[in-house]
């Protein structure tokens, strides 16, 4: 089942990137678009939480921070697509794994092993 979720995530993020790039070339209100994206996500999350009556745990706070960082990252990416070269923006949007590896090394002393390293 994890593979289905991973594949769905890759497809959805890919489609999202295509839509962001496509809409960045259109004369639309970008702030309103991004607000709509995150408002709809917030409403769906709140409705799901209310329907399942799940308790609010510390994980909810961490998830909220992740959502906030995601919003800032997507807003920055979208603005980059609107004013910059698509190829350069796409390169920078592929860097989050590098940030994770560097921070994990400095914060927790984690290191990549042979199987996790870059292909030779």
Can you characterise this structure?
The chain is built from five helices and no strands. With 120 residues, the protein is mainly alpha-helical. It is globular. The model has no long low-confidence stretch (mean pLDDT 83).
Strands, total number: 0
How far from one another are the termini?
A: 30 Å
Radius of gyration: 17 Å
What global shape is seen? globular
Biggest beta-sheet profile:
none
- Share of residues in strands: under 5%
Uncertain residue segments: none
Q: Pairing-aware structural class of the strands and helices?
A: mainly alpha
Quickly count the helices: 5
Could you spell the SSE succession in H and E letters? HHHHH
**How confident overall, as mean pLDDT?**
83
Helix content: over 70%
List the helices and strands and how they pair.
Blueprint: H1 2-24, H2 30-52, H3 58-83, H4 86-93, H5 96-108
Helix pairs in contact: 2-3
């Amino acid at each position: 089942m994890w593979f289905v979720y991973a594949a769905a995530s890759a497809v959805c993020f890919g489609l999202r990137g295509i839509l962001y790039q496509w809409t960045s070339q259109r004369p639309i209100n970008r702030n309103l678009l991004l607000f709509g994206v995150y408002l709809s996500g917030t409403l769906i999350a709140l409705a799901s939480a209310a329907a399942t009556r799940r308790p609010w745990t510390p994980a909810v706070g961490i998830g909220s921070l992740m959502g906030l960082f995601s919003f800032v990252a997507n807003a920055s990416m979208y603005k980059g697509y609107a004013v910059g070269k698509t190829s350069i923006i796409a390169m920078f949007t592929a860097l989050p794994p590098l940030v994770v590896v560097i921070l994990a090394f400095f914060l927790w002393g984690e290191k990549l092993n042979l199987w996790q390293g870059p292909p030779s």
